[in-house]
Amino acid sequence: MTSPFLPPRTELWSLLRFTSCSSLLQSCFVHLGKDRWQLPDVCLSLLFFFYLKALSPKGFIVLVKTKIAVSIISTLCFLCAASSPAVAKDPQDIRIAFVAPALSNPWFMGVKSGVDAACKELGIQCTTIDAQNNARKQQDDVRDVIDDNYDGIFASALDSRALAPLYARAQRQGMVTASIAQTVMNSDLFYTMDEHDYGYTIGAQAAHWAQENLGGKGKALVLTQDNMPEVKARGDGVVQALHDICPEVEVVERYTADDPYRAMILASLVLPRNPDLNMVVATTDSAGIGGYITMFANSMLGKDFGVFSGDATRDVLIIMKEPNSIYRGTVDLNPYKGGYESIKIMYDMIQNGTPIMPMVKRMSYNQVSQEMVTSGQFKPSY
């Protein structure tokens, strides 16, 4: 016997399925750190709407025009205002933390210089924390920033998945979150790039040099950052470019190295097995510098040798200008601009509220040849 207070079985099943879908949707938003939008209010309003329709196809219309409509409208109004601060803050009271993966990497020093410049210009407080290439330490650093009630967190992730729940917690506390290069999946601001395409740009520069100077042949050591899942595609891009443009170039080894010291050690291990090595191609200037030092120390000089990387840091630009330098090219990601613009955007979000949809900014990257540096054609941004 069917109860007069419950919808028929078929309609009840439809209602339960809708409930499951709404729960799944809510879980997705919570995982993304957007539960401050009060999504449960929207789900409950919609559930009540369908429940009334199941109970009384005729009578629910009247209520829809009153209570449900008011509920949904008020909820939507709340969504629009939920992330907007009531009163703008005094800039002197605003604190933003830049949690860098490793300040030993010159590129992040470039980002820091942009961060510092923007904070000084805005008159806000800035703290830079060095995670020292330790993912666990970076998580602790971000957690400390949240506990200290900063207004914003800006980071480049060593482990994006590990930082995501911390970013969600920060957002629940009303903090603005942003990430650059290796981004965190639920940031309010993504300052990002296509890692594979960036790696391909690095590899293409090396490959074209090999075409012109080695007849499209030779041997290359590729130094990557495969220890970081978000950056592995960059190394894939380097290798693909070498194979696409110079199929006869042999990649003798692909090793993980994201600092000069480790790159020096790995290059020193590779050379005895490959004394005819021609190139070191690295996904970051830090590793490229290590490869360059090893090759230079082994008197690998002249037109048959080359080192290539990405970041266009000041250290590499200086090396390119040295007499007999075999550092042939890098790629400019303009870290100063990335740091500067990110802080400016975060400041606006702190004062005026975060957007419902995250903001995405794309990095531009351009090949920088040794000739461009020595001639003065290329001017560093910081």
Account of the 3D structure:
By secondary structure, this protein is α/β, with parallel strands linked by helices. It is built from 13 helices and 12 strands. It has helices at 9-31, 39-55, 60-82, 106-122, 135-147, 160-172, 195-213, 232-245, 260-273, 285-297, 314-320, 335-352, 370-374, and strands at 95-100, 125-130, 152-155, 176-180, 189-192, 219-224, 250-256, 279-282, 306-308, 327-332, 359-362, 366-369. Helix 5 (135-147) runs parallel beside helix 6 (160-172) and helix 9 (260-273) packs across helix 10.
* Share of helical residues: 40-55%
> In percent terms, what proportion of residues is strand?
15-25%
Number of DSSP E strands: 12
Q: How many H/I helices?
A: 13
Low-confidence stretches: 1-53, 55-82
Straight-line distance between termini: 78 Å
Strand order of the largest sheet: 2-1-3-4-5-11
Major sheet size, sense and barrel closure: 6 strands, parallel
Task: List SSEs in N-to-C order.
Answer: HHHEHEHEHEEHEHEHEHEHEHEEH
Name the shape in a single word: elongated
Radius of gyration: 27 Å
Mean pLDDT: 83
Structural class: alpha/beta
Task: Please supply descriptive tags for the structure shown above.
382 residues, alpha/beta, 12 strands, 15% strand
Task: Give a brief rundown of this model.
The protein has 382 residues and is α/β, with parallel strands linked by helices. It is built from 13 helices and 12 strands. The strands form 2 sheets. The protein has a 6-stranded parallel beta sheet, sandwiched between helices.
